Amino acid sequence: MKDPIYLKKVTSLQEDTDREYCRTKPDREEEENEKGDGKKKEKLLDVGFFQLFRFATWKDTLMMVVGGLCALVHGAASPLMLLVYGMMTNTFVAYELEVQELADPNKTCINNTINWINGSIFEIAENTTVFCGVDIEAQMTMFAYYYVGIGLGVLIVSYFQIALWVSAAARQIQRIRKTYFRKVMRMEIGWFDCNSVGELNTRISDDINKINNAIADQVSIFIERISTFIFGFMVGFIGGWKLTLVVIAVSPLIGLAAGLMAMAVARLTGRELQAYAKAGSVADEVLSSIRTVAAFGGEDKEVERYDKNLIEAQNWGVKKGTIIGVFQGYLWCIIFLCYALAFWYGSKLVIETKELSPGTLIQVFFGVLMAAMNLGQASPCLEAFASGRAAAKTIFDTIDREPEIDCFSEKGHKLDKVTGDIEFHNVTFNYPSRPDVKILDSLSMLIRAGETTAFVGPSGSGKSTTVQLFQRFYNPKEGMLTLDGHDIRSLNIQWLRSLIGIVEQEPVLFATTIADNIRYGRPGVTMDDIIQATKEANAYNFIMDLPQRFDTLVGEGGGQMSGGQKQRIAIARALIRNPRILLLDMATSALDNESEAIVQEALDKARMGRTTITIAHRLSTIRNADVIIGFEHGRAVESGTHNDLLEKKGVYFTLVTLQNQGNDMPNKFLCSSYSIFPQQSKEEAEERVEPAPVARILKYNKSEWPYMLLGSIGAAINGSVNPIYAILFSQILGTFSIRDLDEQRAQINGICILFCAVAVTSFFSLFLQGYAFGKSGELLTRRLRKVGFQAMLKQEVGWFDDPRNSPGALTTRLATDASMVQGATGSQIGMIVNSLTNIGASFIIAFSFSWKLSLVVVCFLPLIGLSGVFQAKMLTGFANEDKKAMEAAGQVSSEALANIRTIAGLCKESTFVETYEQQLEAPYKSAKKKANIYGICFAFAQCVIFMAYAASFRYGGYLVSSERLHYLVVFRVISAIVISGTALGKASSFTPDYAKAKIAAAQFFKLLDRVPKISMSQIDGEKWDDFKGELEFINCKFTYPTRPDIQVLNGLLVSVKPGQTLAFVGCSGCGKSTSVQLLERFYDPDEGRVLIDGRPSHTVNVPFLRAQIGIVSQEPVLFDCSIAENIQYGDNTRRMSMEEIVDAAKKAYLHDFVMTLPDKYETPVGAQGSQLSRGQKQRIAIARAIVRNPKILLLDEATSALDTESEKTVQAALDEARRGRTCIVIAHRLSTIQTADIIAVMSQGAVIERGTHEELMAKRAAYYKLVTTGAPIS
């Protein structure tokens, strides 16, 4: 920065700090990219600045007031120093004049007046005598004491200024975090439908950090600068009001530039974030459903989609760089023109009207300039305030929002006695996130106490919705629900929910132990209760078989457990509540026959004397219900017992007849097929990352070299401006000691013209630097993000099982690492070139004029530089700790937000709030420690410069008196070196950025360099033309890489001829789905081989192999785009015509349903397909598989989640699709398997018998037993 020297003194260091703070602000904002609050960006600043402090206690307020006062005093120090400086200048000038006169041997100094030797008094033109006898050394000693005094004062106040503000902010942020999270947990479910979990997590971390930036040290630095501004003007007016007014007249131009720049930057950053948020959500979606992407070979397509969204962000970034360049150039241009004007007019006042002394000229000029500069430097702080206020807007809006359904409220009745009659009165409802789709349409029905009521109907007819309304996740739009005749809106929520036990189709477990998961059902239960509940839920035996029994961790989302196991834990959790009302939403659909019978029995026991609502597709589970209610289009169209409804020949009748055709056998059998997902040992050591070599980072920026070159040229010119300024400035001081007035005037005019030239140059060079580096940096960021994303998608699926590579972690890595790497190139190079030329030129100037003095001043450089480095190091050290500490809290919050429905159903909101608050303690403590250390370093940095002045001017005085050095040289040397010191400090203050960039880059390169265990490239491995689809598993053994101790496949032996259908049956966790994953080559077997058309799978080209396989899984993953695009996803190698899509949709029995939607094939399916019912998603997935026209079809429980009606259509679609293809089916329902060519019964990772249905029935072994009695397979 080219601030005037005075400023230099004080601000030099402070600047590095704030540079570090204010400069990295834009970069920080890039990290905040994943903001989805585009809509809210419009009404940016509705939160007033002082409202940011609404969480301050009186103690915080006191700390902030004292800190603010210290900042005011600190701000006054620099202008105070100017007074000393002015006096000092006068002393030097007087001494120089005296020396010039006494050079004439005929003159001598008597009684402080110059006399001729002959005794008469020497007079100059205006009959004035000439003063003499300046004791320069004594004077200088006195000035040195002044400096030291001011320096010590600054040391003390600047420590308090920072320490108090930072710790007060830490306390408030702690409070905001707690309040915010607590409030979010109180929101009704409808609110979560409209706010994505990812966005809420980002808000908790990034937005609150932005508020922190706005209320911490930035404020005190802002106060300090404003105070310098005020005192600077005061010093100016006291010294000479005319000159002050002239300078003031020009300064609005400076202020204007600073203001506009802050506005523009905030605006553009917002735009850039918005643009990046889109790309971020693409990345998140893709990484979350990586198995689907891999199976359908969608990697390249996804990279393109991601890159498309990056272009927009890049363009905004370039605009931002350019605008910053223009405004900075303009700012410096004005400042230099100001110099020219002020010196020209000031010298007039000194020489012609004698109103000012040279010292006062300096004092006035720098007073005003320092004031203007500090006003300008206060603007980055304003930017921090603005982004803090913008962030606070969303945070405070949430904090102030009253939830429509408040789960913490004490309001509402608690009935003394609950019988359990539930009645719906003309209930109409639609989800808040989809107001145009009616889910329930004036539904009326009565559910009697103590009876079991079953809901049946096609998917999407509103069965599950009624259950959610009854739990009061939503309020009905019209009509009401009553419990024992009381409107449930008048009842206490926590109490109401405590009456309800719910078991869902896909139960959510929390990432803790089994026992803790069950404890969530009811506070304060004993271990005996837990054991009793697990016995009732038929979970006890499998839990006791696990190595850690009840202390087994279930993994993230229960991922370590098979479906049936999760289900039984969930049932135990519901039973332990001893609920009055039991809601079973397809509770047994994921269980095998034997477990189902027992669980069903457990549920039947549980149902005694309780009001029960069952939703099921399996009619066998419903037969014995007291009342069956048939749903259609959001209405209850019929109700009665099984036999009544069969006579009515309505919805129920069609469902039953459909289900009964062709199976005289029990409807459903075999255990669930959730493969056991890998468990991670969390203790894996964090790997140390060596910082990446800069050369390699630059390689990625290679194609931008012309920009980099231009930018560096601009930076070099900028760097040399400061030293030139030091020469011109001291030259002006020198002119005051010239006796000849005309000569003096000519010199001054010359210097002013040079100032103007410097001004213009500096405008262009700054613009050039801003634009060129902005462009190259943004291009690099985009390239790295794209390359990084590509590298992620190239990894084998097993890599994503590692918790360190969870989708969340990877998306943040893309967002932040790439923009941090930019810190090591671009603007960074600019800073370095700038600082180097600056330091180089300054040293050359200084040493060429006076090497002795230069050496003394240089002694202080290390200290000045050191304090900069010190600060930088300290801040980065803390940043890492903070991140680590916040991670633990972040995990709690993201788990809580992701499973909010389950938590609400269990009334466990407060438990999560407490856990979260405990996790916040550690980061809070470290923040308080940070305040003190930061304060000490800041204070040290601030006072070094005063000490440097004291020493160098004292020594300068000595040289002037004893070695006849011209005082102009003293000023020149000191200002040149101090300027280079600031430059050095600035270069060092960028080290943190630089170090961060190198580490970020290293992590990035580690990702790029990782060689996937299973190569995804188009060239590796063989391809062949007549792919038949013959499959063989030969003695495959396999364990998941993240859980090496559990053998999933143990010598699997089975083969399928082309065109045959192989069905796998067996318990959950016996390796059925795993075999499918081996076939897709998500994993490779540890021993044994998988042969495809007789070739070992690991020699086959992966994209080629996957292109031959179509997969339909139990819970299909859809992407957040239209239905048509989801179907197109089936074949990513080409553009697909609409005809093909429609054709596939017809085959999957999807077409008719799509045509009923308002936007037909362009209907968006929502995130993860959330806008569609199960059956609809399933059919889209089938259409997607059909479009591929695969040789091998894998159906992993493709119909288990469907109701009978959808199942029939889907089953027909699948039978259609199976023709002429090799097919592997995993199913629970016998009807779907009977026709298979080979049925393989699996147990513990191996096939125990195989054959057709008839053969196996004849054998009367495992399969027969399964079918007839549902006995376990051992």
From TrEMBL:
Residues 65-387, 709-996 form the ABC transmembrane type-1 domain. CDD domains: ABC_6TM_Pgp_ABCB1_D1_like (cd18577), ABC_6TM_Pgp_ABCB1_D2_like (cd18578), ABC_MTABC3_MDL1_MDL2 (cd03249). Its main location: membrane. It is a multi-pass membrane protein. Residues 15-37 are annotated as: Disordered. GO terms for biological process: oligopeptide export from mitochondrion. It is found in: Cell membrane. One of its GO terms (cellular component) is plasma membrane. The keyword Membrane applies. The chain crosses the membrane at residues 62-88, 144-168, 219-239, 245-266, 323-344, 705-728, 748-773, 855-876, 933-953, 965-984. Keywords: ATP-binding, Cell membrane, Glycoprotein, Membrane, Nucleotide-binding, Repeat, Translocase, Transmembrane, Transmembrane helix, Transport. InterPro entries: AAA+_ATPase (IPR003593), ABC1_TM_dom (IPR011527), ABC1_TM_sf (IPR036640), ABC_transporter-like_ATP-bd (IPR003439), ABC_transporter-like_CS (IPR017871), P-loop_NTPase (IPR027417), Type_1_exporter (IPR039421). GO terms for molecular function: ABC-type oligopeptide transporter activity; ATP binding; ATP hydrolysis activity. Residues 422-658, 1031-1269 form the ABC transporter domain. This is ATP-binding cassette, sub-family B (MDR/TAP), member 11a.
